[in-house]
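Feature request disguised as a bug: please show the residue count (220) next to DNA-binding response regulator in the output. Example input:
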Amino acid sequence: MTIKVLLADDQALVRAGFRSLLGRSRELTVVGEAATGDEAVRQARATEPDVILMDIRMPGMDGIEATRRVLAERPATRVVILTTFDTDEHVFAALRAGASGFLTKEVEPAELRRAVALVAAGEALLSPSVTRRVVEQFAHRPVPVSGDALEALEVLTAREREVVRLVAEGLSNDQIAAKLVISPLTAKTHITRALTKLDVRDRVQLVILAYESGLVRPGS
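Example output, currently without the count:
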């Protein structure tokens, strides 16, 4: 199955570069380009992409608001944030808006193609440890506890809450399994059930919810 990709960046050279790199894979096809956030929203509506590579800093509507609007209309679309540096102060806001991860614009060609395929398959484009680092670095300190997030966790069993806490602390599935003395498959099942019950799209959103609910605190 071909993965449809939309490129949203205000620099034509960046878009051209990514189009060329993605075009080397028969599994990926670029269905549109946008130079502004407004164009990204319109193009997403017109082309129905599986994945959007979204720049944060664009004229007019930025990539964060564009991400929020696209996902409100097309929840199944995956958004990957493009940033010049992995310390971009807006990355956390973009993840909170629903992005499934981020890539630096210096990404290697093979890694770019692999990342798009990974996100299209429903995975989050951040390793567990990087997820925690990003959330901790850009979350307000202390993170304001959200009543809605706290209430949402009440649908989880005690074991699922524990697994969510470990996910937010940066542990991989294998590490969670070892810590709780369960199989990696069981750990993955608990995470999948938590994602479904909490109605969040991926591991990144699960981590953010854990911080917003106060289940995990920065530095814990």
